[in-house]
Specification:
Largest sheet: 9 strands, mixed
Radius of gyration: 42 Å
Helix content: 55-70%
Distance between the termini: 105 Å
Number of strands: 16
Strand content: 5-15%
Structural class: alpha/beta
Number of helices: 21
Length: 665
């Protein structure tokens, strides 16, 4: 069975919904592979067969030398011819048929094997019968009886894959020999003939038993082989089978394409409807994918919701069109157990020419990642630029690990002011990385690398601890805000204990710490995230939703998440002083926030005009260059002190003015 087969073709789906339907009965009429394996068993011990024939020839020649009977010499000559024929059959089989599955070719060699085996059996039986009849109680008959009985004993354990071959061999030897013994008329030979008859009956039964043992073993081996090459859920090939075929094509310099398909947001189906529904969806998705490929292609499931296709197509443009059709097909709703489900797919494509299979796999993975970065439900073809970017990313990851070890990371602090009092109420801690050779690396570059490489929990803990210790030297009414990554909300990290430890070691009050999150934290384990946020608020820590308005369902998150503040993204404030539309949206957002008793912080305010426009709304905090740029910790403290003194002087001046006004009236 070829790599792409499951009974009727390379991409045939199993009839049974729960497991792969594989035919395992190794009868000759089943499949070509089983038939070929049985023919191979006939030629499995060529040395033993040829050696056995030479021994038989030697015994027959010895009988001739002892008796001088020319008939026995003729038998020896015939056996020599049969021996040569069987040797030639084995030699020809090894050259032309071993490893092949063509039934017509295998049938020819089956007939040759049967002719050699049965003619040998007939000659052995004839030799034994003739010697006891023509030379009773002489040396020749002793050799004839010994050879025939020994041959019968050896047959009982041969050809367990095809019992009828052994049965016919046994019958030919035993019947011919039996009649020779009976016709001799000698009592001793008659008794031997009766023993031969009983031996034949017993051996025929044992041959059938041995055959059943062989069949059971072959079935088990075939099933294990199939399971090693099949995905039990969908019936598709697995990674091992696909890699095996790809190695063959690569060795033969056969060009190919790899197409990687990943179902986006499939985890939501498992979380919402259970794994049984998820498995059914995977089967349905596999069927839809199979529609677009032929038996020349190898379609494999290589991960939970990932499929990989090996195809001999060479045209990347045609592959792009094919992938687009697959994306559109998978976008259509699925009806699983009478429940309509929707999913989308990201697809990566890579050429397999002039590269190793391992490199081709790396390329198609990079193309798939790029498709996901484009926003999912997209198709991307690998290019050299992707490879360069990947190599650059790997180098940056290595440098980032060294930066953590060498203490190259730092925090910059940007004050957030109350627009009415012009007092700093909160300071956001922003992570910075100054590379020794490249200078400052943008957080938009190294933070995703840290998240993908698993470094972000360590970096996040360091940032929280450093920011809390810095805040301990600030005025008591100034809080600190720290950004959290979705990767920090893991069950094995215990974010609450980490936060409590940072508060205790720094000595700041819990309400002075604000933890900023984004909508992305709800992608993986929303129930656990909400539970963690509630536990954080229970110890007094504040929570804020950052970049509000940039996601797909921010309003619904206001209801789901336990929050104290929202930070309105700069995209809402860029034209706040010139656009009525922006002003209307700001009015609506601040109104909702007030109803939910949430503080509102506006990001990205850079001009006095924008700041003045915000005076029409109830804003609790303003963050932007209009007040201050991010600064290091040494610059921050003088800034805070200066702000406090300035605000104090303004407060005293206003108080004197109010008193004078009161006296004058």
């Amino acid at each position: 069975m070829s790599v792409g087969e499951v009974e009727q073709g390379s991409n045939a789906m199993p009839d049974a919904p729960k497991e792969v339907a594989i035919r395992l009965d190794p009868s000759p009429g089943n499949d070509d592979l089983s038939y070929a394996s049985m023919i191979e068993a006939l030629y499995g011990t060529p040395s033993a067969i040829i050696l056995g024939m030479m021994i038989i020839n030697s015994i027959v020649l010895g009988a001739y030398l002892l008796s001088g009977d020319p008939i026995i010499l003729g038998m020896a000559c015939l056996l020599l011819v049969i021996n040569g024929f069987r040797w030639f059959s084995h030699h020809l089989y090894n050259r032309k048929a071993r490893g092949q599955t063509d039934r017509a070719v295998q049938r020819q060699f089956e007939r040759m094997a049967l002719a050699g085996a049965w003619s040998t059996a007939a000659m052995v039986g004839l030799f034994g019968a003739y010697t006891v009849f023509a030379h009773p109680y002489q040396a020749a008959s002793i050799l004839g009886v010994a050879q025939t009985m020994g041959y019968l004993g050896g047959l009982s354990t041969r050809n367990t894959s095809r019992p009828y071959i052994t049965q016919i061999q046994m019958a030919l030897v035993s019947i011919i020999f039996f009649f020779g013994l009976i016709l001799s008329g000698e009592l001793a030979y008659v008794l031997i003939g009766i023993a031969v008859a009983f031996t034949l009956l017993a051996t025929l039964s044992s041959v059938r038993t041995l055959h059943e043992v062989y069949v059971s073993r072959l079935q088990t081996m075939r099933k294990l082989e199939m399971l090693a090459r099949r995905d039990a859920l969908t019936g598709l090939a697995n990674r091992h089978a696909l890699m095996e075929q790809m190695e063959k094509w690569h060795a033969a310099d056969k060009p190919f394409l790899l197409i990687s398909i990943d179902l986006d947001n499939f985890k939501h189906v498992n979380d919402m409807f259970g794994h049984t529904m998820g498995d059914d969806l995977l089967r349905e998705a596999a069927q839809r994918i199979l529609r677009h490929f032929t038996d020349d292609d190898v379609v494999a499931r290589v991960g939970g919701d990932e499929f990989l296709i090996l195809t001999p197509r060479r045209d990347a443009v045609m592959a792009m069109a094919l992938a687009t059709d697959i994306v559109n097909d998978l976008t259509l709703p699925f009806l699983v157990r009478n429940v309509p489900l929707r999913t989308v797919a990201s697809i990566g494509i890579a050429m397999g020419e002039s590269v190793t299979p391992e490199t081709a796999l790396k390329h198609v993975d990079l193309a798939l990642y790029q498709a996901k970065d484009f926003g999912k439900n997209q198709v991307c073809v690998y290019s050299a630029e992707l490879g360069t970017n990947y190599d650059e990313r790997i180098l940056l990851e290595q440098d980032l690990r060294r930066a953590i070890e060498n203490g190259e990371l730092s925090l910059a602090y940007q004050p957030i002011m109350n627009p009415r009092t012009r007092r700093v109420t909160l300071v956001e801690a922003l992570m910075r990385w100054k590379h020794p050779e490249r200078g400052f690396i943008s957080p938009g570059v190294f933070i995703p690398i840290a998240e993908a490489s698993g470094l972000i929990p360590l970096m996040g803990t360091w940032a929280m601890q450093t920011a809390c210790h810095a805040a301990a030297s600030w005025p008591a009414d100034v809080g600190v805000s720290v950004n959290l990554s979705a990767k920090q909300f893991r069950r094995d990290l215990d974010l609450v204990s980490i936060t409590r430890s940072c508060l205790q070691s720094s000595g700041i009050a819990p309400h002075r710490l604000t933890l900023e999150i984004t909508e992305s934290i709800l992608i993986d384990d929303s129930d656990f995230v909400i539970e963690t946020l509630e536990r954080l608020r229970a110890i007094g820590v504040r929570t804020a939703l950052d970049d509000f308005g940039t996601g797909y369902s921010s309003l619904s998150y206001l209801e789901k998440l336990p929050l104290d503040k929202i930070k309105i993204d700069r995209s809402f404030t860029t034209a706040i002083d010139t656009s009525r539309r922006s002003a209307s949206m700001m009015r609506g957002i601040t109104g909702i926030a007030r109803d939910l008793q949430l503080e509102v912080i506006v990001e990205g305010i850079e001009t006095e005009d924008q700041l003045a426009a915000l005076g029409a709304f109830q804003i609790d905090g303003v963050q932007g260059y209009v007040f201050a740029r991010p600064m290091d910790v040494l610059s921050l403290l003088p800034f805070l002190i200066h702000t406090i003194k300035t605000n104090g002087m303004l407060a005293n001046i206003n108080q004197v003015r109010r008193k004078k006004t009161s006296i004058g009236s």
